[in-house]
């Protein structure tokens, strides 16, 4: 895996999100403190990011509705994600919130949090104490940890430092993360989580249906940027997503939806509102894009069995 190329995808995605936020696709009061410049993209890309953010949020809120303030959230490959701050603005109480990424990414994020009062004031409101190292931050219920996800021994050690409760209902989030990791390392990670967290829900946003011309173009574009997509074999279709990520790794169950289904699960009024932001000339291109990404959830135990994204 070319780590530098993968790290660069975080910057690119964050810039795209900032641009979509500036255009009004969704509200995020914090991304501008982490990313100074948006990257202008085509309307179908902005709608794709809207569907991604809102689709993952939909699962997050279903999880929170079920478990309440006992919730523990672990965001894998979190990059410059602002979920923690957005949940705080909604007055949602999280027992423990842990972000994990490459040490070089978390070092930069910790630095930006430390330097910005709008970010910092949200993470130390509990007891006023912030513990910082070169790559990690511990502040009340918020933790930002520099870890290579391929190293489960180091991951376990860092989770202990973050006072991770293995028995708490825990939501794992991974957005375009596992596809960059070698399959044997993903299997080891997913088995580790399944073995440690008996009451877990995992939401994975990733490519799917990659065995066609559109998928070939997507892969070539990423390879041209140095990303070799080590885990692409699990992205052939929704079935391989479920089986390779969860079924083969001791999870209790799984379910997957392509982003067409996710997008049309949103209320019609919401979709109509965001579709007025930018004129979309090629509706067919948007549908093709949606067909090649998915949200796949897996669960341990029976707490989250039946938590389906298409439900209102």
TrEMBL record:
<dbReference type="GO" id="GO:0008168">
    <property type="term" value="F:methyltransferase activity"/>
</dbReference>
<keyword id="KW-0808">Transferase</keyword>
<keyword id="KW-0949">S-adenosyl-L-methionine</keyword>
<protein>
    <recommendedName>
        <fullName>Leucine carboxyl methyltransferase 1</fullName>
        <ecNumber>2.1.1.233</ecNumber>
    </recommendedName>
</protein>
<dbReference type="InterPro" id="IPR016651">
    <property type="entry name" value="LCMT1"/>
</dbReference>
<dbReference type="InterPro" id="IPR029063">
    <property type="entry name" value="SAM-dependent_MTases_sf"/>
</dbReference>
<keyword id="KW-0489">Methyltransferase</keyword>
<comment type="function">
    <text>Methylates the carboxyl group of the C-terminal leucine residue of protein phosphatase 2A catalytic subunits to form alpha-leucine ester residues.</text>
</comment>
<dbReference type="InterPro" id="IPR007213">
    <property type="entry name" value="Ppm1/Ppm2/Tcmp"/>
</dbReference>
<comment type="similarity">
    <text>Belongs to the methyltransferase superfamily. LCMT family.</text>
</comment>
<dbReference type="GO" id="GO:0032259">
    <property type="term" value="P:methylation"/>
</dbReference>
<dbReference type="Pfam" id="PF04072">
    <property type="entry name" value="LCM"/>
</dbReference>
């Amino acid at each position: 895996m070319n780590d530098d190329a993968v790290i660069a995808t975080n910057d690119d995605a964050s810039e795209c999100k900032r641009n979509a936020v500036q255009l009004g696709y969704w509200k995020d009061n914090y991304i501008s403190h982490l990313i100074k410049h948006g990257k202008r993209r085509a309307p179908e890309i902005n709608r794709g990011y809207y569907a991604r953010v809102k689709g993952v949020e939909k699962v997050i809120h279903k999880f929170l509705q079920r478990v309440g303030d006992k919730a523990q959230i672990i965001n894998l490959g979190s990059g410059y994600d602002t979920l923690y701050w957005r949940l705080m603005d909604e007055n949602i109480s999280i027992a423990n919130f842990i972000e994990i990424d490459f040490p070089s990414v978390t070092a930069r994020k910790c630095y930006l949090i430390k330097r910005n009062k709008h970010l910092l004031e949200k993470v130390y409101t509990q007891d006023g104490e912030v513990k910082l190292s070169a790559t990690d931050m511990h502040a009340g219920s918020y933790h930002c940890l520099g870890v290579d996800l391929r190293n489960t021994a180091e991951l376990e050690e860092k989770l202990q430092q973050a006072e991770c409760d293995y028995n708490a209902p825990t939501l794992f989030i991974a957005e375009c993360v596992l596809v960059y990791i070698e399959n044997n390392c993903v299997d080891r990670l997913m088995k580790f989580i399944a073995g440690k967290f008996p009451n877990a829900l995992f939401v994975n946003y990733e490519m799917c249906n990659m065995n066609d011309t559109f998928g070939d173009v997507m892969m070539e574009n990423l390879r041209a940027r140095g990303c070799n997509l080590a885990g692409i074999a699990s992205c052939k279709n929704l079935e391989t997503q479920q089986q390779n990520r969860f079924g083969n790794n001791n999870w209790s169950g799984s379910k997957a939806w392509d982003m067409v289904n996710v997008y049309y699960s949103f209320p019609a009024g919401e979709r109509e509102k965001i579709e007025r932001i930018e004129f979309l000339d090629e509706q067919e291109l948007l549908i093709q894009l949606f067909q090649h990404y998915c949200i796949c959830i897996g669960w341990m135990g029976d707490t989250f069995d039946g938590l389906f994204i298409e439900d209102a």
